[in-house]
Design brief:
The structure is a single chain. The chain is 64% helix and 7% strand. It is built from 16 helices and eight strands. The longest helix is centred in the C-terminal third of the chain and has 148 residues.
Length: 612
């Protein structure tokens, strides 16, 4: 569907994180419609034309009171069980706080230290990638003239010891009591968009939410979600479990930031209104404390993450909304828009019964509009009666004038008869011209048949060419499939073996086994290439080894390998890729240019021998 045919709308997406289980229970009861009170008439329609729906375990069901009660009971039971199993005791919480302070001191030291080697060493020890070796660490600090070396060593030792104690003594019961356990996501098409309240629109919102989080955060389950069709807007509520099912950690915020960073890196040209992610050093001022610096950095990073997440969700939503004739866009950030959003935020903080726009006030507004319309219709009807009376008087006077007009028309009729006789004469002349043009038309028809025959012949030739192109396309698809299944793994394995040889050389180990595997890999790759493509591939393998200072002769194919290649070319059809004539010539010229380009001497050559 063309973008010009889409209705432009706005979206409101709000996230609420719950560590306070009382707040979670209250919001969940509202979504389940279990909070019945004297303000229900203000909050939602008690007799809606469509029922509300809930999605639990991927199954959508009408939301009944019995089902709502069962969902709440099951969820509370599961949540309490999880809390008992994972929440840290006072003692563990105290130990984790000590670990956090030690980590904070280490990060502060890292940020204030310029040598990259020290940063990499401390980070790898903190993340458990390597053990702490006091002698190595002390030598590294001495090398870069770091002061208070003993204190630096004690700090890193204390951190690794404390981290090991916590992991050994309480690996499962280490979740802070203040950690956010559930996120509520509310997605709304605001009322000013003037969309009818329909299940089709809430289905669109549900699909957008579920697919977005299942695709980008597959290790966090959507516990349940609700479609409310008894209020004044199309909107849904979804409750997301913030515990990572893969790692068991509550690391959703870190996952969001990682996703935002990757999305921004892929799409930053289209996100020209959003600058890059903030850096800690951007908030460093001479008189600003580290605490304020960190606080501002964290706050700005969260703001940046929210902007990128919103842009990503809008892109995802619009990919689905086009089928519904909709497209969501950001409104321009004007003063009026800012004030309007501020009022909406203030209204959202009030109970629904106290909002200026709720179900009850919307109903009153609708009745008032209907009354105004009826009053206008009544005034119009009264004016119509007056106009009709005036028209009747006008018609009476008009009848008199019509009689005089009839006499005039009879005189004009006699004159018209004379004109008709003249027209008959002209008609005869026109018939002659028509007969003449008919003859010309028949001549053109004959010419058309001849042209049609020629075009039919050309069309048959075109069909034949299309069929040949289709056969070439089929061969190309077969080659692409073979590349993905056979050639790509060999290309990747080549890079891995190159890295192994380079590593063996750095470690002064014998790389012979890797050279042997690399030669075998080169033979397998060559056996799947046509003649011209194979020449180019073997040339580039040798040049790549030379560029890395490796012995290319150990990978060169021997006489027996060439015999096997000849047999493979003759008796098998494994050769899936080859150059055409033009590509072969281009590759040949590229090899010549590379051979003419001066190169650094190989470690396997004598730099003083001009004949090598």
């Amino acid at each position: 569907m063309n973008d010009t045919n889409l209705q432009i709308i706005t979206l409101t997406k709000r996230d609420r994180n719950y560590s306070n289980l009382k707040g979670l229970d209250s919001s969940l009861r509202h979504s389940l419609r279990l909070d019945q009170n004297e303000y229900d008439d203000f909050e939602f329609n008690l007799n809606p034309p469509h029922p509300n729906f809930v999605i639990v375990s991927g199954v959508e069901k009408p939301l009944t009171r019995d089902l709502a009660t069962q969902i709440l009971a099951d969820f509370n039971g599961q949540l309490q069980t999880k809390i008992k199993a994972t929440e840290a005791s006072d003692e563990i919480a105290s130990e984790k706080e000590k670990l956090r302070k030690l980590k904070s001191k280490l990060i502060k030291f890292i940020n204030a230290t310029k040598p990259t080697e020290i940063k990499e060493y401390i980070t790898s020890v903190m993340e458990g990638e390597k053990p702490l070796v006091v002698g190595d660490y002390a030598a590294l600090l001495n090398q870069h003239k770091i002061s208070r070396i003993a204190q630096r060593i004690d700090l890193l030792e204390n951190y690794t010891t404390k981290k090991r104690e916590i992991e050994q003594n309480a690996p499962d019961r280490a979740v802070s009591r203040t950690v956010n356990r559930v996120k509520e996501i509310i997605l709304v098409i605001p009322e000013p968009n003037k969309l009818a309240i329909t299940k089709a629109y809430t289905d669109l919102l549900q699909k957008a939410l579920h697919q977005f989080y299942q695709k980008n955060f597959p290790n966090n389950d959507i516990l349940f979600s609700f479609s409310h069709l008894d209020e004044t807007t199309n909107h849904v509520h979804a409750f997301l479990d913030l515990q990572n099912t893969k790692s068991g950690k509550y690391d959703f915020s870190a996952q969001e930031f990682e996703f935002a960073s990757q999305y921004y890196a892929r799409n930053k040209t289209g996100l020209d209104k959003i600058s890059g992610p903030p850096k800690l050093e951007d908030f460093k001022l001479p008189n600003r404390t580290n605490e304020k610096q960190n606080h501002r950095f964290v706050r700005e990073r969260e703001s940046w993450k929210s902007k990128v997440m919103q842009a990503a969700f809008y892109e995802h939503f619009n990919g689905l909304a086009a089928a519904y004739g909709l497209q969501a866009k950001f409104l321009p950030k004007t003063k009026e828009k800012t004030e309007y959003l501020s009022k909406i935020e203030q209204e959202a903080k009030k109970p629904k019964s106290e909002r200026s726009h709720n179900y009850y006030t919307r109903h009153l507004e609708k009745l008032q509009q209907e009354l105004t319309t009826k009053e206008v219709e009544l005034i119009e009807q009264k004016a119509t009666v007056v106009n009709l009376n005036t028209t009747i008087n006008d018609l009476r006077s008009t009848v008199t004038s019509y009689k005089a007009t009839i006499q005039t028309l009879e005189i004009q009729a006699n004159e018209q008869r004379k004109e008709n006789n003249e027209l008959d004469h002209h008609k005869q002349k026109l018939n002659y011209e028509i007969n003449k043009r008919t003859t010309k038309t028949e001549e053109l028809s004959s010419n058309f048949k001849t042209m049609k025959s020629r075009m039919t012949k050309e069309l048959n030739e075109l069909h034949k060419k299309i069929k040949e192109d289709t056969n070439r396309k089929s061969a190309l698809e077969k080659a692409i499939k073979a590349y993905e299944e056979e050639l790509e793994p060999l290309i990747k394995r080549f890079d891995i073996l190159m890295d192994r040889i380079l590593q063996a050389r750095r470690l002064d180990e014998n790389p012979e086994q890797y050279y042997k595997k690399l030669r075998e890999n080169t033979y397998e790759m060559a056996s799947r290439l046509g003649t011209e493509k194979r020449k180019d591939y073997l040339f580039n393998v040798a040049e790549q080894l030379k560029d890395q200072g490796l012995d290319h002769s150990q990978v060169a194919l021997g006489f027996s390998d060439k015999i096997k290649l000849w047999a493979s070319d003759t008796f098998t059809n494994k050769q899936v890729v080859d150059f055409d004539k033009e590509e072969a010539e281009q590759a040949k010229q590229a090899r010549k240019r590379r051979l003419l380009k001066p190169k650094p001497p190989s470690p396997f050559q004598d730099p003083y021998d001009p004949y090598q």
